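Data deposition worksheet. Section B asks for the primary sequence of the deposited chain exactly as it was used as input, without tags or linkers unless they were present during the calculation. Section C holds the resulting structure in token form. Section D is free text for depositor observations; keep each observation to a single sentence. Incomplete worksheets are returned to the depositor.
Section A, Depositor: J.P.
Section B:
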Amino acid sequence: MPPTSPRRSLRLLAAVAVSLVGLMVAAPASAAPIDRVQASTSALPSGVGAPTLLLLESVNAAGKVLQIGDTNAQVSSAPGATDRAAAAIETMRTGNAASLKAQALRFYPVTGSANTYLIADQQDRVLVRSRNNDTAFRYLQLADVADSASDPYAQWEARDAGDGTVNLVNVQPDPSSQSAALDLYNWKTTDGSEVQTYTLNTGAAVQKWRMHTLQATVAVPSAVVPAGSAPSMPTSLAARYGWGGSVPLTSIAWRMPDRSVWNSSGEVDVTGTASGFFGEAVAVTAHFSVGSPGQADDSALKSYAGVSVKELRMLAPRTVVRKVSGTAATVTSPVSWDWSALTDAALAQPGTVTVEAVAGSGFSARLIITLVAPERVNLLRQNGVRPDWTFKDGTTFALTDGNRNAVGFADWRSGGAANRVNPNRVSFSFDQPRQITGVNVYDIGGKQNIGTVTVQYRTLLGGWKNLPTASGWPVTNATANLSLEVTSTPVLATGLRVIVGNKSSGTWMTLSEVEAYGPRTPAS
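Section C:
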């Protein structure tokens, strides 16, 4: 043990460690609440402010927190040490009050020093770096908080390390006048791994920590209340803590206002209290907009000239936004549109079309449809297209890269003629219905073994039909290469597939490109 300072009574050699932070559920009613702060600032040592409880999570060992004074720690490797280290990595036991008390650390702010703290457990044992004249100066010790407020070896500056993390740097430079930071020893991540100090390396994950507050945050529920009616108050709320745990609150009690506040339009907040995970009182609020929903805001839809009524009906919004009278609130209401007067012929040219909500909706609403000149594109190169196949060899799939003269699909398989895949299929699924007006299929520079081709589209009901063309299907390829280009009566498709048959089982089949053309659907 190194000599003790007159201002510090060193209790034992300390190596600090980390403990798993799990998603917690509410502690049992019998669990003792964790101390939030000291009861009175008059009891604080001179030179520090009231402490805040934090969980200190290691970046290198994500989900684990620094814990002080654990008897399950590894044996310290400090020269001549025989005691176990003062802290260890321990798995968080959900709802275990004793574990929580060990893991929740008191951060005492040092008066007059920005972002500088004493770090203590709830017995007020403070982390102190060993003295510079000690050969084990990198190791940590424990001291009483009352003896450490002015000791630079006990003070830790939280320096921004980026991405919400900090380096905890000892205020006292090491013997080489370099900064020493809390360091997860030897990059270990297992329970019981020690924390010491080491020369500051701002990029090292073992020296980065996340400071998680134990203060609960609670979402504010909101509702619309008709004038003259008092609301039903929420009976179930959840609190979220800094480490990410979402915990049901208990003992929710609301302070209800005078009933007259619900008689006229306006905004009303109702406050109350509840009990949090640590047994602490948590303030809660519920917000109410008193009034009646009015007419709906106009809805907008953008498409292309030539779109069908059927496609618009699938793309049209299912809900509208309505303002609540006398408030800034809005509500979302389901809506049905009246398509009875709209025809495909009315959608043939660019312009604007208006569709009203069906009669009997209880409110008025308009859908403003803007039609732009159609832009013909290769639909298979747009977003929301997923390819599939019956069988493909190890050739990289590149049937939609725009190159018609290089193999983008092949179905070689060992076993010779008896093991050929014939016919084979390549298919494309669409994330939303697309109008198809033509398809091209190419095999240029490949095995030249495509004998027949059939192109089909998947209907809105999920079945497959041949693409309607003048030539019909299958198409026979009488040439070496394949260059099939067909136009189609417009169809609304949820997918496309190409079925190919070989000329000969003496070799396999290849394709170089598949293209499906139709109008681009503009973004609304």
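Section D:
Confidence is low (pLDDT under 50) at residues 1-33, 36-42, 80-85, 91-95.
The two ends are 72 Å apart (CA to CA).
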